[in-house]
Write a structure and sequence with these properties.
Helix content: 25-40%
Strand content: 5-15%
Structural class: alpha/beta
Number of strands: 12
Radius of gyration: 23 Å
Shape: globular
Number of helices: 10
Order of helices and strands: HHEHEHEHEHEHEHEEEEHHEE
Largest sheet: 6 strands, parallel
């Protein structure tokens, strides 16, 4: 008797599920494509979405208590910049997500790409239990993410053979695995950090492929982007984007430079995967009065119509109608001008 009741209950559950599925399908059919589009347009307009706007790609090197060079940031300076980004509605995305147009952030928010060059120990150092040092870049980023729900603690680390100061293959595998499993992005910065300008094609491809293999040889992951050493492009820019050497092929979604301006939206006609600009993280003084992070973040705050603002829907590319001329044709099917 008990078995019969259980069987009956199971049948009723299956029947109930079937009814619910059928009802859901009927409800979905009742909403026309025109109504769906109208609702999306309303959300985009309310958010003042501009997914053709500019994206700050910030460039960091070491995060150390006593900086030796201008590119270094102290832990306090790094934390202050992250706090500012969180307070001003920025949400971190990876370089891979940016370059491939996979920008899934809430409506009204702005993407920011945090990039770290040269794989320094100050960026990520783990203790024996796999916990990051509190004053390392990763430790600070994770802490700011905890303090600001919605501030996604992700970044892209451009790796060289220095590998965060780890010499043993096991340690290198361990730290790359830790980063990858926690959603951090790994990019190629070439193996030896050599200037590629003026090099022959074979030399460029050899160095880039070797850098690709630095990562691929340790974990089953292929980097999606490359950051050029010193920001210097080879004589033929395409050599950095795709090529092969010693049995290793690479075909990247984007190649990043070393500084200067915010980057174009990946959905804009201005987007150039061969040379994506980044912004040096420095205060507003000297050479950085106009062209480093504090200055550019000030400018984007003063000109909100120029920065990328999300509509919250990764399936669409929303923007004010008068900006339509700047949209890339390859994304025309996803366009949502309002």
């Amino acid at each position: 008797m008990a078995l019969s009741l259980l069987a009956l209950a199971g049948c009723m559950s299956d029947a109930d599920d079937a009814v619910k599925v059928a009802a859901a399908k009927k409800a979905a059919k009742a909403v026309s494509p025109q109504e769906v589009r109208k609702a999306r347009l309303a959300v985009a307009a309310k958010a003042k979405a501009n997914e053709l706007g500019q994206v700050p790609v910030l460039m960091y090197h070491r995060v150390v208590a006593k900086p030796d060079i201008a590119d270094d940031r102290t832990p306090a300076q790094f934390r202050a910049e992250l706090e500012r980004l969180a307070q001003e509605g920025y949400v971190p995305i990876t370089a891979a997500e940016y370059a491939t147009g996979k920008i899934g952030i809430p409506a009204g928010k702005h993407p920011v790409v945090l990039t770290f060059d040269d794989s320094s120990p100050s960026q990520v150092t783990l203790d024996g239990m796999g916990e990051p040092a509190p004053d390392s870049a990763v430790g600070i980023l994770l802490d700011v993410g905890r303090r600001h729900p919605g501030f996604r603690p992700v970044a892209t680390f451009y790796v060289t053979r220095d590998m965060f100061g780890k010499a043993r293959p096991e340690e290198q595998t361990q730290i790359l695995t830790w980063l990858h499993e926690r959603g951090f992005d790994l990019g190629n910065h070439t193996r030896d950090h050599l200037n590629l300008r003026g090099k022959a094609k074979k030399q460029v491809e050899k160095e880039v492929a070797a850098g690709h293999q630095v990562i691929r040889g340790r974990i089953p992951f292929d980097p999606v982007t490359l950051a050029l050493p010193y920001g210097n492009q080879p004589n033929t820019k395409e050599w950095a984007l795709r090529g092969s050497a010693s049995g290793t092929r690479y075909d990247y979604g984007g190649v990043f430079l070393a500084g200067y301006t915010p980057a174009a939206s990946p959905f804009s006609k201005d987007f150039d995967p061969l040379g994506i600009p980044r912004i040096k993280s420095q205060d507003k003084k000297g050479e950085c009065l106009r062209f480093c992070s504090t200055a550019w973040l000030d400018w984007l705050k003063e000109h909100p119509e120029e920065r990328y603002t999300s509509d919250g829907d990764i399936r669409t590319v929303a923007y004010p109608k008068f900006k339509a001329a700047f949209g890339a044709k390859k994304y025309a099917a996803y366009a949502l001008p309002y």
